[in-house]
Amino acid sequence: MISGDSTIACSPVHRHPDVDVRVLPGDAHRALATAIVARINSATGTLDAMLFGKPMVVTYRLGALSYLIVKTLLHIPFVALPNMLAGRHPLPALVQGAAELQQRAARTILSLLNR
Q1: Burial letters for 97-112: b for 16+ Cβ neighbours within 10 Å, e otherwise?
Q2: 3-state secondary structure 46-80
Q3: Is the dihedral of CA 8, 13, 16, 21 positive or negative?
Q4: pTM strictly above 0.70
């Protein structure tokens, strides 16, 4: 299940024959409640998925200049809020890389589905 617009459904994981993807515009909680695994790209979304007990892949993409500034100024070991709260890396957190980010997220999600 995807909360968002239908343009989201074009990444590689959505074309996998064993993955059923449905778009639920603006209904994140229903999408999380029915999902087996989640790809999240918002801070509060990661906390929602954590509360729903869903395995997830966290992705963040910033503009090139923003990423350079953040990478230079912030020296934090964790990006995802649940990882910050846990003080370790229980969740995969993928940052930057446009198309590469999509591919890495798809591979990680499929690996979570195959567990």
Answers
A1: eeeebbebbbebbeeb
A2: HHHHHHHCCCEEEEECCCHHHHHHHHHHCCCCCCC
A3: negative
A4: no
Length of the chain counted residue by residue: 115
Sheet containing strand 38-40, edge to edge, reads: 38-40, 56-60, 93-95
- C-beta separation of 46 from 22 below 8 A: no
Asked if pLDDT for residue 8 goes beyond 50, the answer is: no
Single out the residue of 56, 52, 17 nearest to residue 38, CA to CA: 56
Average pLDDT over the chain, rounded to an integer: 75
Q: Binning pLDDT at 50, 70 and 90, where does residue 64 land? A: confident
80, pLDDT greater than 80:
yes
